[in-house]
Fold this sequence. Notes:
2 copies of one chain form a homodimer. By secondary structure, chain A is of the alpha+beta class. Chain A is 24% helix and 31% strand. Chain A is built from 5 helices and 10 strands, in the order E-H-E-E-H-E-E-E-H-E-E-E-H-H-E. Chain A has helices spanning 28-40, 73-83, 138-148, 196-208, 214-223, and strands at 2-10, 47-48, 57-67, 88-96, 108-117, 130-132, 150-153, 168-179, 182-189, 238-244. In chain A, strand 8 and strand 9 form a beta hairpin. The longest helix of chain A is centred in the N-terminal third of the chain and has 13 residues, at 28-40. Chain A binds chain B through residues 9-11, 57, 81, 86-91, 120-124, 126, 128, and chain B through 9-11, 57, 81, 86-91, 120-124, 126, 128.
Amino acid sequence: MKNYKMTIQYDGGRYLGWQRLPKSDRTIQGKLENVISEMCEREIKIIGSGRTDAGVHALGQVANFKADIDMSTSEIHDYINHYLPNDIVVTDMEEVDERFHSRYNVKIKEYTYHIYTGDFQSPFYRKYSWHIKEPLDMGSVSLAMESLQGTHDFLGFSSVKKVKKSTVRTLHSISYTQDGPLLSFVFKGDGFLHNMVRIIMGTLVEVGQHKMTPEDVQRILNTKVRAEAGITCPPHGLFLSAVQY
Amino acid sequence: MKNYKMTIQYDGGRYLGWQRLPKSDRTIQGKLENVISEMCEREIKIIGSGRTDAGVHALGQVANFKADIDMSTSEIHDYINHYLPNDIVVTDMEEVDERFHSRYNVKIKEYTYHIYTGDFQSPFYRKYSWHIKEPLDMGSVSLAMESLQGTHDFLGFSSVKKVKKSTVRTLHSISYTQDGPLLSFVFKGDGFLHNMVRIIMGTLVEVGQHKMTPEDVQRILNTKVRAEAGITCPPHGLFLSAVQY
């Protein structure tokens, strides 16, 4: 059995998320598994680096699957892209060591969140950014970003309900770039809890709007109370931008 | 009567073009005129800097209209955006001299054409770029670009059929930038004939693929025979990016 690693881009706008659902055809994993199973003439399960929620996009999702197929890697790559809908694309494909596991072997994950500022949303970014009219106080946002970096229990910044596993994660960096009205926040870490990027982002926006302070962010890291943090910002501004192994 | 100048962005993907059509609701001008006429409680005609074809986008289309309304410019701006579909946005609005005319007063128009190179089209650029798999020979393309700059009769690079008016135009510059797989060509000129950017772009691509030579481009400027030039490339890669007055 050969092990194939895929890097995948998708526009999550019309999907219910990454994870296959029994009764819906509208998942990214489902679309990929259907095409790959058809190609292999048997049921193939693919392993993603992690789930993305409904409406979230990816520029560099990674998944792997094992199969014995009498086709070159390049032929497999072409076959899959040919049969995928055009809002899902496998950008890279390679044969990897049989022990490679897309989820267990993740070293760093990178997410990007786009915020479009100004009076009016752009027709071109409206599906890929959260529109915030008022300018944000980026000095305060930067202070809050600094306090979030490092190793913390991020329970208060997640939708995790029943704590069975550790909710400690290391956020290696949060940074942002500005390109005219478009603010792009980049989050790099060893792993992210459910909704963690969207709740941190929602909190940072509230800090930028002076509805919260950088000290509040520090406090929530200690109290770990979700209700004290900002809103879960909308999924369509979020991109899983890269996974490193 | 006050004269209002609007700068407009639109995703042309689901429209039949700028120009109002008697029997279709799917034009940009039509959408704008309907909203503005509703606001003014009488029929208002707007004047665009020029037409864009079906499927062509705009980042900086300009149009003006004359009206007497008991609302501030900012209130008018908000009203129009509120009632426009979200793939059309008025980004700027100002009251201008009554003699200002969006079409007659144009000094420079700027168009951008996006080409996405590489084996697979991006899910995010597929609606806004033309996908070309093979890398282009940009040395040859640059030579052809140089010979097109300046004042020429561009009849051979247009869809103009019956020549009534002059087909001489000045192309101030053609340049390109590359951002990974995305090539963006910028055309600045005093005016453009019908399909001129798309035919020049189609010709430049064929030069980059060695189907034509930079000398062919020079020759077509002299022979003015449309059939000798390259294909009219697809509309969805084209943006009217700016109009200067």
